[in-house]
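Hi P.,

Sorry for the delay on this. The queue was packed all week, but I finally got your sequence through. Input first:
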Amino acid sequence: MKAPGRRPERLGDLIREEVSRLLIDGIKDPRIGMVNITEVDVSPDIKRAVIYYNIIGDRSGKDETQKGLESASGFIRTMLARTLTIKRMPELSFAYDTSLDYAERMEKVIDDLKREQ
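Then the structure:
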């Protein structure tokens, strides 16, 4: 079997750029607020892509944003198929990126430790 090379990574970068653009210009769902696409992980066989996002500002609407993104996934996939020149568009799914939350918690722990010294 041939190794996938960098194609999934390059396709992930393209999908990230296009989805970010669509979130600004093309999607009007009020459940989707200020969303930042942090990473797109495309499977080696290009059949699936997980789009990781984070919410800018108040994170209390995380569940509503997830529902809005899942609702818009068909539209996003259609628009990506029109923009990107690939034979088969991967199935899209969305996942909240917890890395920024983790980084904030670690920063708070470090700050608390510094204050205790």
